[in-house]
Amino acid sequence: MKRGQLAEAIGFIFLKLCVGAVLLALVIILYDIVSKGIGSINWEFLTTMPKNGMTEGGILPAIIGTFLVTIITAILAVPLGMGCAIYLNEYAKDNLLNRIIRMSIRNLSGVPSIVYGLFGVILFVQLMRFGTCVLSAGLTLGLMTLPWTITASEEALKNVPKSYREGALALGATKWQSIRTNVLPYAVPGMLTGTILGLSRAAGETAPILFTGVAFFLPFLPKSLFSQFMALPYHLYIMSTQHHAISKVRPLAYGTALVLIALIFVMNLFAVVLRYNLRKVKTE
Amino acid sequence: MDNCKITVHNFNFYYGGVKVLKNISMEIPENRVTGIIGPSGCGKSTFLRSINRMNDTILGARAEGRIVIDGRNIYDDDIDVVGVRRKVGMVFQKSNPFPKSIFENVAYGLRINGEKDRYRIEEAVEKSLKDAALWDEVKDRLNKNAFELSGGQQQRLCIARALAVEPEILLMDEPASALDPTATLKIEELIQELKKKYTIVIVTHNMQQAARISDFTAFFMLGELIEYNITSIIFTKPSRKITEDYITGRFG
Lengths: 284, 252
Hints:
Chain A is built from twelve helices and two strands. Chain A has about 280 residues and is an all-alpha fold. In chain A, α11 (about 230-240) packs antiparallel against α12 (about 245-284). Helices cover about 35% and strands about 25% of the residues of chain B. Chain B has a six-stranded mixed sheet with strand order 6-7-8-3-9-10, sandwiched between helices. In chain B, strands 2-1-4-5 form a four-stranded antiparallel sheet, with helices on one face.
């Protein structure tokens, strides 16, 4: 065997091992959670309140809480993020100021989530006097998701060929007309996919909601945007580290983890299906 | 010379600090085909894109001097750029159909200009496709995606799309450079037909093509207009040595 071929064979085996290691870790985690959590999942678990100091009963308030907070996150992050991306990619001139803005947005996506949490306390809970509630928590998560939404949307816009813009302009379209009719329709699938991935990440966060509205235990559902709420990731954290009878509630914690993972999986799957369908419509 | 449609006065163009068009002055006649030839990088495409202000989209680009169309300088501060582009249509080097149906491609310009009447749009689409000599090939599949057409058909679709907004001038940037000889021939025949109604300015790399289709020919080099005259004179007795060298293939 020649030297080049040997190097190729070794390299290929090494790459395969990398993939294998990652997959193995993933499979082990999933197997652990599914095998230990599946026993707790039943209709009652999904649709009732926790009982007897959270040692029995279900996780309905946590599911509803996570759901509500994610909706508020989306209401803040989706339109603002898409708007920013359109401005930055289509209108902003390539000057120092805009380069600094763009770099700052990239950097914001690397800020630890606990920093967003503390920032949310100051801005929404205290300064704007919303208190610890669904709204404050959702807005905090929204701020955290924005850099992801903006970056993903900008990438989607960059993927639309320049010739679509020029072709429209050459026919006497205004800049906004060319963007609205000949750029956005082809960028939206990518924009949505990136956005939903950002939202599913937000849905699983604990730190940003810790001080802004999530509650340890509430035996009722949030009544308004200004109520406290329970959320899946925080509930999981409580059940696995803070509960007075940790070993007793372990199956419930695994069940919660499984529901959270399933929720995020469904959101990501939805993003993929949505993108696939929108692409198909556009090129037909 | 015939009726003058476009007059260029001392036109200069810069990309950043680089001057890519140097003091161009020329008159482009109405209802004629004016060919622009010259080696790569001589500024011919930049010049063409100056006539409908397509260069506005390029960062750091700057124009000096005047380009007057029907008595109006299109570089005046108060000019309606969108209106200029509606009047001066453009066909690009690489055919760029939009990822829509054949019908919607041609209807696009009408729709963005506010035409809502379905009957009028259908009529205009049919007429434009006929003018672009494409109607017979696509009339049974107007709702099919434009990407299903062949390269030559796509380019004629782009011509039809430009015609649908009823421009007066048609700019063509090497419209046949990516096409095979048969498709090229079709485009060339089409240009001969179109000049009855439109003023055509065409950039071409191919000197035989310029000789075949254009009434007037301008030779550009290094951003300067070297020579401009009736095509037969440019190709048989050019007044400048450098023009002769280029058209006889000594460089370029």
